[in-house]
């Protein structure tokens, strides 16, 4: 009973400072634009030093410039997260630049150039491999690289960016993508249970439709928005805010979960 009432008093102390990331380091993959850039901006604004990864160095550089211009701390770490042999070396460079990675956000998930939607019956096996490499194998390698130090340090956060396509069948030729995202969610659930005792949490955010898919006045985009009860597409800032909660002290109770971030989307409307 004593422990329970002490915990209740701790809870009463939860203030906004519990949402800060001062002194933390974060690596965000695919952060040179879109959702990842939004995540990097929010984590830096909360006080983290952010390693901005992207396949394209120029994209990573421009996000770093914007963050540092706004008074935040960030470094560019361009590399291809699907390069199995190169990842360990690239992550050693990240560690040289920012130290141990306290927060890993694996956001890179759409192949360069957008990937090719393909009905499964027509899909070349190379498309399957590409989705598995980017969404599942890359995540596995990243986590394996940063997890030992997080466990030694007794603190860490792993966030996988997933998609509603992992749990909802869609008639738009994204079966391989959905399967790879579903696999990543499976790994997250096990990771959270294995690592929770060491102070490391692992969660996935399954995103709905995000801004940037097309012009707001495009009838196809408007049809998609009709299925979103809040009446708008998601933004990188929305995703960053959710990740800030998961990665701060305030979010420490959230572990081994897949959280849907989609404005309450009703599919097929
Ligand atoms: N956009 C959406 O509507 C939507 C919906 C659900 C889930 N998601 C998920 O959100 C995440 C971000 O999507 P987005 O729309 O911002 O994508 P995006 O294509 O706008 O940006 C992704 C970035 O990742 C980089 N990238 C691609 N392959 C890489 C690699 N091998 N190594 C390093 N960087 C690489 C790209 O260069 C690009 O800058 C993805 O995981 C995606 O599956 C997006």
TrEMBL record:
Signal sequence range: none
- The keyword Secreted is annotated on this UniProt entry: yes
What this protein catalyses is: a (3R)-hydroxyacyl-[ACP] + NADP(+) = a 3-oxoacyl-[ACP] + NADPH + H(+)
- Keyword line: Cell wall, Secreted
Subcellular location(s): the record lists:
Secreted, Cell wall
Pfam families in alphabetical order: adh_short_C2 (PF13561)
- What InterPro entries has UniProt attached to this entry? NAD(P)-bd_dom_sf, SDR, SDR_fam
- Provide the family line: Belongs to the short-chain dehydrogenases/reductases (SDR) family.
Protein name, UniProt field: 3-oxoacyl-[acyl-carrier-protein] reductase MabA
> Native species of this protein?
Rhodococcus parequi
Upper taxonomic lineage: Bacteria, Bacillati, Actinomycetota, Actinomycetes, Mycobacteriales
């Amino acid at each position: 009973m004593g422990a329970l009432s002490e915990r209740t008093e701790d809870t009463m102390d939860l203030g906004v400072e519990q949402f800060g990331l001062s002194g933390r380091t974060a690596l965000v993959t695919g952060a040179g634009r879109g959702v990842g850039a939004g995540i990097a901006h929010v984590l830096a604004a909360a006080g983290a030093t952010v390693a901005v990864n992207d396949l394209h160095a120029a994209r990573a550089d421009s996000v770093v410039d914007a963050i540092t211009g706004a008074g935040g701390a960030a470094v560019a770490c361009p590399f291809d997260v699907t390069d199995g042999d190169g990842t360990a070396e690239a992550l050693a460079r990240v560690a040289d630049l920012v130290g141990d990675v306290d927060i890993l956000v694996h956001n890179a998930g759409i192949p360069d150039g957008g990937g090719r939607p393909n009905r499964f019956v027509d899909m070349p096996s190379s498309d399957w491999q590409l989705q598995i490499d980017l969404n599942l194998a890359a995540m596995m390698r990243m986590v394996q690289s940063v997890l030992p130090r997080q466990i030694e340090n007794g603190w860490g956060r792993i966030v996988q960016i997933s998609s509603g396509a992992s749990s909802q069948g869609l008639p738009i030729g994204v079966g391989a993508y959905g399967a790879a995202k579903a696999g990543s969610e499976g790994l997250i659930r096990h990771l959270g249970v294995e690592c929770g005792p060491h102070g490391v949490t692992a969660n996935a955010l399954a995103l709905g439709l995000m801004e940037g898919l097309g012009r707001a006045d495009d009838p196809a985009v408007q049809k998609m928005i009709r299925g979103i009860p809040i009446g708008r597409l998601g933004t990188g800032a929305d995703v960053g805010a959710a990740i800030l909660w998961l990665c701060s002290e305030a979010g420490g109770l959230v572990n081994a979960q897949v959280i849907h971030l989609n404005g309450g989307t009703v599919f097929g409307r």
